[in-house]
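QA checklist item 7 of 12: single-chain prediction sanity check.
[x] sequence parsed
[x] length recorded as 90
[x] structure emitted
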Amino acid sequence: MIVKKIEYTNYFIRCLAKLPADVQKTAWRKEELFRINPLHPSLRLHELHGRYIGVWSISVTNKYRIIFERQADGGILFMSIGTHDLYKHL
């Protein structure tokens, strides 16, 4: 997987802003790592299943993850960030 660009939904930005400052900082570090090496083991990149086919996840911490879609133009769309509860909002 090559990351050409990352875009963010308004929902992602709102969810990120509600997280504790330390989690926000870690999320931006993981986003940078994802840009450089999306297959880095600490990201635990995986595609979701069931009704979430085509949606991917990377880990921010053991508790928090970022959910995204791959775009046809090679870009990435970060859709949401949060705990496992975030799956309810996709």
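[x] summary fact logged: The beta strands are 6-8, 46-47, 55-59, 65-70, 76-82.
[ ] second reviewer sign-off
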